[in-house]
């Protein structure tokens, strides 16, 4: 595994946080509230991350009954922005068609051509 160093400034950059925000679901009420004060929210989040005072919020638990009963834990939208901001830097999107499967990067399934 490749070690990434000195990526924190990239993770907390305003452009990266804005890109991470755009990956969120837009129809959820929490997102609408976040969007109303978008610049303020992102700058506040950036400041908390830069000063290491950011604390994740509590997860929302709910149950779905599709095919079978499952309990889901959903992070607050603000936390999902942070998650996406980190992933944007450590695992940028690949243009390889085969990498769109649910397999580790650089691997293919038995049914996929190599």
What can you tell me about this protein's structure?
The chain is mostly helical. It has one domain. Helix content is 41%, strand content 9%. It is built from 5 helices and 2 strands. Strands 1-2 form a two-stranded antiparallel sheet. It is globular. The two termini are 21 Å apart. The relative contact order is 0.16. The model has no long low-confidence stretch (mean pLDDT 85).
Structure summarized in a few sentences:
This protein is mainly α.
**Helicity range of the residues?**
40-55%
Following the backbone from N to C, one meets helices and strands in this order, namely: HHHHEEH
- Oligomerization category of the chains in this entry: single chain
Structural class: mainly alpha
Unreliable stretches (pLDDT < 50, length at least 5) are none
Mean pLDDT: 85
Task: Tell me the number of structural domains.
Answer: 1
Tell me the number of strands.
2
The major beta sheet can be summarized as:
2 strands, antiparallel
Topology:
Blueprint (H helix, E strand, L loop, with lengths): L7 H4 L2 H8 L7 H8 L1 H13 L9 E5 L5 E5 L2 H14 L24
Antiparallel strand pairs: 1-2
Helix pairs in contact: 2-5
Structure characteristics:
two-stranded antiparallel sheet, 5 helices, 114 residues, mainly alpha, single chain
């Amino acid at each position: 595994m490749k070690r990434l160093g000195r990526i924190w400034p990239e993770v907390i950059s305003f452009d990266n946080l804005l890109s991470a925000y755009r990956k969120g679901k837009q129809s959820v009420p929490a997102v609408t509230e976040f969007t109303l004060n978008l610049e303020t929210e992102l700058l506040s989040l950036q400041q908390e991350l830069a000063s290491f005072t950011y604390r994740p919020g509590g997860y929302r638990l709910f149950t779905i009954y599709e095919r079978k009963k499952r309990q889901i834990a959903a992070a607050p939208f603000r936390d999902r922005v942070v998650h996406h901001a980190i992933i944007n830097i450590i695992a940028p999107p690949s243009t390889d068609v085969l990498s769109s499967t649910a397999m580790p990067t650089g691997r293919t399934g038995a049914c996929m051509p190599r």
